[in-house]
User: What shape does this take?
Amino acid sequence: MLKLIGVTKWFPRGSVEKVVALNNIDFTVNPSDFITIIGSNGAGKSTLLNLIAGVYCPDSGKIMFDNKDITRLAEYRRSMYIGRVYQDPMMGTASMMSVEENMAMAMLRGRRRGLGRGVNTKLREQFREALAPLGLGLENRLKHDVGTLSGGQRQTLAIVMATISKPALLLLDEHTASLDPKTGRTILELTEQVVKQGNITTLMVTHNMEQALRLGNRLIVMDAGDIIVDLQAEQKSRLTVSDLIEQFEHASGKRFVDDSLLLRRKGED
Assistant: This one.
């Protein structure tokens, strides 16, 4: 489905110095993959998602999607088949627009938009059907501004918006990291449910090593712009966090010192 071929991205630092964010990455994503991605800060995880989404263009290399070269394709064009949920619940939704207006915009993402009414009776019923199973009462708040929702409700809406048009690929960039533990667990359960029901190919960046081992059928570890470990379902199902740290140290040639990947917030699974 998705293939990165020799992709490199660097960012300027100072007048002439450059920081390599991704270093000649070769990476293939197969249909129905649910890939968890971990790595320390600065490993290149978010840059990888941004390149796939079209936020950045690579400085070298090629990005293929369904055998089509999308390396220079604009972000809004890719949004027709790529959904994304960000770490910050305030991103990806418009505070001053209603729940139903946000969902209508999500359905039109990447498509031509006319000047007619954004929401009709048929769409409104479709939105209710999408929101009702979540048990948060959002189906009864369609006309409420999104800015009045809690962080968890807003992130729930963001997931529904990212998947309502049935994207071929879903990108999750630490989408539970800024939520309290209980809400984070709820959002993660919702994520698993939505991905499974829609059979959506998914890339999920996380800072939780236990989550990375438990979820999905594949796990990659990034370090300094490289993919240094790539584990399939059978391999990762046998590993503990300690085993994963050992694999990191063996592949990177350096000692694991990032406590943020080990420490879980109180009450977090």
Remarks:
- The first helix runs from residue 45 to 53.
- Residues 263-269 have pLDDT under 50 and may be disordered.
